[in-house]
Amino acid sequence: MYPRHPRHRRAPALALLVGVLCALLLVGCGSGKDAPAPEATASQEAAPPSRSAGQPTPAWAKGFATVPEAALPAEARQTLRLIDAGGPFPYEKDGAYFGNYERILPRQKRGYYREYTVRTPRERDRGARRIVAGRGGEFFYTDDHYETFKAVLR
């Protein structure tokens, strides 16, 4: 019988090491520490909350992904300027009551929220993007027609 080459003696040890590392990765991935709470909504799972240049997250935005106003699409920033100015708005439904039927936004009395269209380039209709404004000064942005919302930090 021929003596084994030194490289062949290391192969089982290397395979064992790779197996141990894979097992550790699988255990770490399944720890459940990063899993969202069962009651979390799609808007809350979309992205972890972020902060705008050290600005603390306002109480009304807690639990929502946030986006600084400057990071919104240009059309959304234009819509915010129109809201601040009180109009005129390009779409007939702008300023209509938002019913919050999806119950993603914090519950408020009927008429608390109003919705505004964010123009989508190359769309023939209103598209899916909206700004929803609350009477308390809160603003939410959605780009998927109310499936998810981000709190707008101004």
From TrEMBL:
One Pfam family it belongs to: Ribonuclease
Coiled coil residues, start to end: none
One MF term in the entry's GO annotations: RNA binding
PROSITE patterns named in the record: PROKAR_LIPOPROTEIN
Keywords: Hydrolase, Nuclease
Domain of life: Bacteria
UniProt keyword annotation of Hydrolase present: yes
InterPro entries: N1-like, Ribonuclease/ribotoxin
Residue span of region Disordered: 35-60
Protein name: Ribonuclease T1
